[in-house]
Design brief:
The protein is an alpha/beta fold. It has 14 helices and 15 strands. The strands form two sheets. Strands 1, 2, 3, 4, 5, 6, 7, 8, 9 and 10 form a ten-stranded mixed sheet that branches. Pfam families: Glyco_transf_61.
């Protein structure tokens, strides 16, 4: 008879039970781990096709010429954006009702693609947002999140990651001045995720850098508007990215991109894409639609996006770097006596802009003699449209004073060294507010000394051609009340200037005195 320990039997049972439980617990752990791993693989594959931070397929350009993007490969053509009707359209709100996006960043600091502070507002899997701003000149929209552009359809689409109850649309003219003829609008759409009639277009190209959608044309070709309507707003929109931004240009103007290629090269490292002929569906995490012009040929630091307080001084410094301009200060003059030969070498240089058409100076030789008598070395210049910008910039930068009648030629003040002088001759007809707005305020913000000389009616050729009893002579206010067309006709289009050199002498003296105090 085998003797069994009555206390050992329960212990053995407990051992068998413990071993069985341990084996099943291990199996459950392995099964759970495999289930988590499988879920992770499925989710990551789903987001690989649409993630805005995927590896970019674009490459840095060699030359800034607008190109048509290559077609999508077989099987890659995405569905086109449907439902471009007016349902859900809203107007952009005034600037004071909006907040600028993104934390402050150092000007011009380059950042790695996909690691952008300014995109922090749109996390990889959030719903994204559209922030639209209305300014006195422009409408712009910033789109954050899963953003897709369709160039040939002129659409920018925000695809929500989760359910969004409302579909919304904004119609934006991407030129810096709204309501320009001949420039099609771009439709910005915020999709609702439940609308089967508005499917999201599939990505064919995914970018890791943000994009700016802009439009050329309009007033471009006028030297002043080249800067006021395009170069300055583009600098403001793109400088924070340090070149890591993709430009998509509608209404493409290849000649303009060629003329200002040096500037565009420094604002983007990538080929400028022809939006109107781009048949790809491009995916970004942040797209800015439109350029915002704060003021004529000017920058309002508080309105600069991204928290970077850029100014016109930053813009002119950027131009000096771009065109390798040597002078960052005007001539240094002192009040102490110097030998005659040294004094001759130290004469400040004055560039006199001699317009070849309306608003021209009819007594240039007298003005030259007056300026030389005041102590300047004078050069007469008449910059032409086809002059290379770098050559013109180098020439202007070598002068200490720029003198000219109100007109596009004074835009060259952007190439003067800081501390130099701009003298604007304002034609007759109460044009002082316009002259101050377009050249006076910008010059001051560039760090230049601005002087204004308003001519009297006796210095205007209108007195001879129209007679003293004409409303344009007797009552300029009545001409202004008649509208801009009449103002432009008489005071800008039919008027030349004969400067009274005796009356003008104190203005020249002020310019020289300013340079002596530098």
């Amino acid at each position: 008879m085998v003797s069994v320990d009555k206390q050992a039997a329960p212990a053995a049972g407990r051992g068998l039970l413990s071993s069985w439980a341990q084996r099943h617990l291990n199996l459950c752990f392995v099964a759970g781990f495999l289930l988590v791993l499988l879920t992770y693989l499925v989710v990551s594959q789903q987001f690989a096709a649409t993630s805005p931070v995927a590896v970019p397929t674009t490459t840095p350009h060699r030359k800034h010429q607008a190109i048509k993007s290559p077609g999508a490969g077989a099987g890659e053509a995405g569905s086109t954006q449907g439902g471009r009707g007016g349902a859900g359209k809203t107007e952009a709100r005034p600037a004071h009702e909006q907040q600028q996006e993104g934390p402050p960043k150092a000007e011009g600091r380059a950042r790695r693609a996909g690691k952008r502070d300014d995109d922090a507002a749109a996390k990889p899997f959030d719903n994204g947002k559209v922030v639209c701003i209305a300014s006195p000149f422009s409408y712009t929209c910033d789109v954050f999140g899963d953003v897709r552009t369709n160039g040939t359809a002129r659409t920018v689409t925000l695809v929500p990651a989760t359910s969004r109850p409302e579909r919304r649309e904004w119609s934006i003219q991407a030129y810096a001045r709204f309501n320009m003829t001949g420039i099609p609008n771009v439709t910005v759409t915020q999709l609702d995720s439940t609308s089967a009639g508005s499917p999201a277009p599939a990505c064919t190209v995914t970018h890791r850098v943000p994009a700016i959608v802009l439009a050329l044309g309009g007033h471009l070709g006028n030297y002043f508007h080249d800067f006021s309507d395009a170069l300055v707003p583009l600098f403001v929109a793109s400088r924070r990215y340090g070149g890591e931004v993709q430009l998509l240009a509608g209404n493409i103007q290849p000649w303009w991109l060629g003329k200002y290629e040096a500037v565009v090269r420094r604002l983007t490292k990538y080929e400028v894409l022809d939006l109107d002929h781009d048949d790809q569906i491009r995916c970004f995490r942040h797209v800015t639609v439109g350029l915002n012009m704060h003021k004529e040929f000017n920058i309002v630091p508080e309105l600069v996006p991204g928290g970077v307080p850029l100014s016109m001084a930053n813009f002119t410094a950027f131009l000096r770097e771009t065109y390798s301009l040597p002078r960052a200060a005007p001539i240094s003059l002192t009040n102490d006596s110097s030998p005659p030969v040294d004094a001759k070498k130290r004469k400040p240089r004055l560039m006199l802009l001699d317009r070849g058409h309306y608003r021209k100076l009819v007594n240039v030789p007298e003005i030259v003699k007056a300026a030389e008598k005041a102590g300047f070395e004078v050069t007469i210049a008449d910059p032409r449209f086809n002059v290379r910008v770098k050559e013109l910039a180098m020439s202007v930068n070598s002068f200490d004073v720029l003198l000219g009648v109100h007109g596009a030629g004074l835009t060259n003040s952007a190439f003067l060294p800081p501390g130099a002088v701009v003298i604007q001759v304002v034609p007759y007809g109460k044009l002082e507010p316009m002259a101050q707005r377009e050249f006076g305020d910008p010059a001051a913000n560039m760090g230049l000394r601005y002087l204004e000389y308003s001519i009297s009616v006796d210095e205007s050729t209108l007195l001879e051609t129209l007679g003293p009893d004409h409303p344009a002579i007797k009552d300029p206010d009545s001409v202004h009340r008649s509208g801009w067309d009449k103002v432009a006709e008489y005071y800008l289009g039919k008027q030349n200037v004969r400067v009274d050199v005796e009356r003008f002498a104190p203005t020249l003296a002020l310019a020289l005195d300013h340079l002596r105090r530098q």
